[in-house]
Amino acid sequence: MPARTASRSSARLVGSVRPRLLTPPLRPLNRKTSRGYEMVEFAEMIGEPLLPWQKFLAKHALELNPDGTYRFRTVLVLVGRQNGKSQSKRLVSLWRMYMDGARTLLGVAQDVALAREQWSICQETIHACPDLEAEWGGVRNVNGDERFWLRSGARYLIKAANRRAGRGYSIDEVTIDELRTQTDWSAWSAISKTTMAKPNAQLWAMSNAGDDESVVLNQLRDAALSGRDPSIGLFEWSAPDGCELDDPRAWQQANPGLGYVISEQAIRSALGTDPPEVFRCLDVNTPVLTACGTMLIGKLQVGDAVKGTSGEWVGVAGTSETHVGRDCYRVTLNDGRSIVCDADHLWTVRDRRRPRPGFETLTTADLISRGITYHNPGMNYDVRNFSLPPVAPLDGPDAELPVHPYLLGLWLGDGARRSATLFVEARDADHIAARMEAAGAKITTRAKDSAHCERFGFQVGQPGAFTTALRSLGIYPQMAFREAAAGDFRKFVPDVYLTGSLAQRLDLLRGLMDADGTVTARAGRCCFVNTNAELIAGVRRLVRSLGWKTSELEAGQYGQSHHLPRLSVDFTPRPGEPCPVTLPRKAERIRAARGPRDVRPVTIASIEPVPSVPVRCIQVDAADSLFLAGDLVPTHNTEVLCQRVDHLDAAVDASAWKACADAQGSLRGQKDRLAACLDVAPDGAHATLAAAAMLTDGRVRVQVIKAWRSTDEARFQLAQVLDELAPVQFAWYPSGPAAALAPILRARPNSIELTGGKVGEACQGLADLATTRRAVHPDDPLLNAHIASSSKLHTGDGWRFTRRGAGHCDAAYAAAGAAYLAQTMPAPSKQGLRILRY
User: Fold this and answer.
1) Which helix or strand (DSSP H or E) is residue 528 part of?
2) How far apart are the first and last CA of the chain?
3) Short-list 821, 815, 780, CA closest to 801
4) Which of 268, 278, 269, 265 lies closest to 369 in space, CA to CA?
5) Rounded-to-integer distance, Cα 308 and Cα 785, Å
6) Mapping DSSP to helix (H, G, I), strand (E, B) and coil, where does residue 178 land?
């Protein structure tokens, strides 16, 4: 192998044009037997010439029957990521709209954000080409009804891949992105029926390789390979099963874009010396937003959940060892954010110097060699070359917050540091008072502080509850106020508020902006100004998490002593986006804005060498291979070879668990039948308290109550959490890592120790509840990740949970124990009805 690799090193390594597995044509392909030749010419005419493998795919996928209809009703394309399959399919769709007479096209994906991205790039392609632009009709961009159309009447719609997708439409062409994510037939059954009435319809399914849970992909692939269904065309660029990861021939076979949009150096850097799960590395001290708050990448484990560019949580599927001695660089973006990585770290970027640039994957070293900027002779200035992909607003389920986010935003912006007191402009006082009361606050005092300012005293719930809540968030010190120094009172945005739902974070920003924000009259530009650098950093991250671009700015000085730096967060909402203020006078300025809106992309401003630091990488289960690191910077993790992998011995069926999700329900009203369980990860770096209750319909609802990053955190907070929860029964596993907390756990009333066979009964019981759809859970990303990270450890005829690799599964154990108690505890006693007899 080394000798063969060396002999090839002097020649350019390019991807294979011909797929490893394919459905062969029925007759020689030419202009009479395939319309792919016309499609290839169309791509060249609009300035987006196809790669060699894309031309091969077009000519074969658009093969004709003798009667002139398309041979394939279903086109199944399997190819590794970042090779250009999305561009290929986009151009086929545009050709069908403009040249082939297709009237209705539908793009679907499990995550509708993926379909929306292709839909949006289609529009960019149209607007960039005068010939295509001349036929433009219009666009409708309403959630649930997103489409654009041409003057000819052709239209392109997008939907989420579910059983309602395409209902009511008769479709000429359907594009399904990442088919491997469909673990049941519900979406496919609905979508495939939309093409039945069209004699020349096609359904294109694009995907990377799947696993055992990819039931739709696997069955279609098998049907094509066996010839059972001649209407399915299979075109699979993949590495042979069992090949070595460092075999260049496998790279060529799996990556047809190699040498065009993927560099050989990127693959060699990723696979040259690292184990299979290691791809590219970041500084171990890089912060990453997780479902449990911000953690360093050096501390992440398999099963943790991080944010992807779609705004949703994605699971950490693998981690690497920590590496030292590598060449490291600081990559700085044009908005001031920066991240430290090694020379081999991969980036998904758009090279703006290339005609019709699309996103490609390059190493840090590749970016340096191409040049970060280039000189524009016409404008006589340097232009930044590489732009990063956009990041959707982050979203997720509502978080359990001790203070309403709008109230916390008001107080952080204009609240007294040591009390529940607000200072508001007199002209806004009535509006702010009404909003505070709607958020659950009671105004206890209201007085004039000056001619233009009023002072509000307020409380939330019982007297002192607001102070207690701030203390639990770390804003107030744990000690008595009289013993605390001024520096012990910190105003900042707590992590739990950055991991809340989009609506919760928007409420937090509205409170901040109502209190201490301004809006410019002409451009509608929003600005939050403060002298507190820690608060400004949190607000900046909050704004970015909502999808707005902002920069780090410092302008002048102000403050009582006029020596503090004036820091600001600036951003500009675009039409149709949520309004970040509630005050009518500020909201009106945004609505009436006439100036330009900042829609420029985020670009790489500089890459500078820094002293070598320890680096580490993670592998994420994201369709685009991207996750957010540092200050929400989109960074890469890719699959180099397209190979099917067998699903590990999963403890809980993934599709069944997903089907049990119910984000609307809760355990409220179940106090008389509430059970709880605690478990700790073997490394002591994570602990979870879960609760469960038997519902009246016989189902068992489970959910995570609290999670900690260490046993030390749990030791100091567990008693208070359990006192507030007040479960009827409480369980733990004394033979496992939870034994570290045994003195505390045994002292709890109604404490039950799950030992011996009960451990297996609890684990197998939760899996059975999911399979029979008798489990209910709130779709919590932490619990989902730990369930997904749990495999079976077989003991005798049974099994219990065990973690995959170095991940955590303590949340799965805690949920299993709570569900076990909920099913075995005695039914709550009912008050008998006394009958009076006369």
Assistant:
1) strand 526-530
2) 100
3) 815
4) 265
5) 14
6) coil
Contacts of 601 (CB under 8 A, 6+ apart): 350, 387, 388, 390
Q: What is d(CA 689, CA 77) in angstroms, rounded to the nearest whole number?
A: 44
Asked if 619 contacts 318 with a C-beta cutoff of 8 angstroms, the reply is yes
Least confident of 209-223, 447-461, 725-739: 209-223
Count of other CB atoms within 10 angstroms of residue 553: 15
Q: Take residue 659 and report the two structure tokens written for it.
A: 């089907």
Report the pLDDT averaged over residues 237-248.
72
Higher pLDDT, 629 or 566: 629
Supply the mean pLDDT for the chain.
83
pLDDT at position 292, please?
Answer: 76
Query: What's the residue count for the chain?
Result: 838
pLDDT of residue 287: 85
Look up residue 422 and give its two tokens.
Answer: 């607000």
- 10 Å Cβ neighbour count for 799? 17
User: What secondary structure letter does DSSP report for 741?
Assistant: G
- Whether 407 contacts 469, CB under 8 Å: no
C-alpha triplet 18, 24, 29: angle, nearest 5°: 85
Distance, CA of 713 to CA of 681 (rounded, Å): 13
Residue 177 near residue 206 (C-beta atoms within 8 A): yes
Pairing of strands 232-236, 338-342: unpaired
169-178 confidence digits (pLDDT tens): 789 999 998 8
Of 629, 420, 628, 398, give the one whose Cα is nearest residue 508. 398
Q: What are the distances in angstroms from CA 40 to CA 37, 110, 278?
A: 5, 29, 38
Give the SS3 label for residue 824: helix
Query: Exposed, middle or buried by CB within 10 Å (0-12, 13-18, 19+), for 231?
Result: middle
Q: Is the pLDDT of residue 813 over 90?
A: yes
- List, as one string, the DSSP characters of 766-817: HHHHHHTT-EEB---HHHHHHHHTEEEEEETTEEEEEESTT---HHHHHHHH
Whether the pLDDT of residue 641 is over 50: the answer is no
CA distance 662 to 539: 31
| pLDDT tens digits, one per residue of 204-236 | 998 887 665 677 888 898 889 888 889 999 999
Q: What is the dihedral of CA 80, 81, 86, 87, to 10 degrees?
A: -90
Residue type, 815: A
User: For 373-494, where are the alpha helices, taking DSSP H only?
Assistant: 405-414, 429-438, 465-472
Average the pLDDT over 492-498 and give the result: 88
Residue 447's DSSP bridge partners are: 455
Q: Decide: 797 and 786 in contact? Cβ < 8 Å.
A: no
Map tokens 């685009």 to a residue. Answer: 624
Burial readout 107-132 (b: 16 or more C-beta within 10 A, e: otherwise):
bbbbbbbbbbbbbbebeebbeebeeb
Average pLDDT in the 622-636 region? 85
How far apart (Å, rounded) are the C-alpha atoms in residues 814 and 783? 10
Q: Give mean pLDDT, residues 50-75.
A: 95
Beta-sheet strand order (sheet of 173-177): 21-22, 232-236, 74-78, 202-207, 173-177, 104-109, 155-160, 145-150, 136-142
**Separation of alpha carbons 125 and 90, rounded Å:** 9
Distance CA 432, CA 425 (A): 9
Can you read off the two tokens belonging to residue 187?
Answer: 């979406």
pTM: 0.53
- How many CB atoms are closer than 10 A to CB 591? 10
3-state secondary structure of 48: coil
What pLDDT shows up at residue 836?
42
pLDDT at 635 over 60: yes
**Angle ∠(104,61,222) on CA atoms, nearest 5:** 105
Which one, of 762, 754, 644, 618, lies nearest residue 702 by Cα?
762
- DSSP helix/strand/coil, 146: strand
